[in-house]
UniProtKB/TrEMBL annotation:
The name this protein goes by in its record: DUF1285 domain-containing protein
One Pfam family, short name: DUF1285_N
InterPro entries in UniProt: DUF1285_beta_roll_sf, DUF1285_N
Chain ranges of the DUF1285 domain: 27-93
Length: 178
């Protein structure tokens, strides 16, 4: 079975995902439990670029729409989910990449492509995954620091026991192992 992108987008539109096609938590996504329809040839590369049939997807609106219904399940796989369909995709590293970090009103906010915005905190903790800084997002997803952001923060790191990292507010944010 193959995915008809127009039909899939239509289902998302009916589920009010198009209006909310922002990268972030979609409140209904955790309630949907459709059957697995199969694998689809969509891949997210190590830089967060979406590909279909081996070619980059250049339509940002379509990528935002897909990103708004992406979830990682307990089996470790990533799925695009509608109320009636679920398609498995490939993610080579993390599905999202964070490119900037700013302090705003005492909170640390990370941003990335597609309008991704997340505030570092209990709901979105910073940790090391496979030796790289990672921020937990929603629906089982995570984001990693982009290379430029990593290199911008690295000179500020200090060593604590067996880790290098930095303090952001009251949080220890590991950048790597010592």
């Amino acid at each position: 079975m193959t995915l008809d992108l127009n039909r899939f987008a239509g289902q998302l539109e009916q589920a009010d995902c198009v209006a909310a096609a922002k990268v972030g938590p979609h409140p209904k996504l955790d309630e949907w439990d459709p059957p697995l329809c199969g694998d689809i040839d969509i891949q997210i590369d190590r830089d967060g670029q979406w590909h279909s049939l081996g070619q980059p997807i250049h339509r940002e609106r379509l990528v935002r729409l897909f990103a708004s219904v992406l979830r990682r399940e307990s089996d470790g796989h990533y799925y695009l989910v509608t109320p009636v369909e679920k398609w498995r995709i490939q993610v080579l590293d993390h599905p999202f990449v964070l490119t900037d970090l700013v302090e705003q009103d005492g909170a640390w906010q990370l941003t990335g492509p597609l309008g991704l915005t997340v505030c570092l905190g209990d709901e979105h903790p910073w940790s090391l995954q496979q030796g790289l800084p990672s921020i937990a997002l929603w629906h089982g997803n995570a984001a990693r620091l982009g290379r430029n952001l990593y290199h911008r923060l690295a000179p500020q790191c200090e060593q604590r026991e067996d880790q290098y990292g930095l303090n952001l507010g009251q949080r220890w944010c590991p950048m790597g192992e010592a």
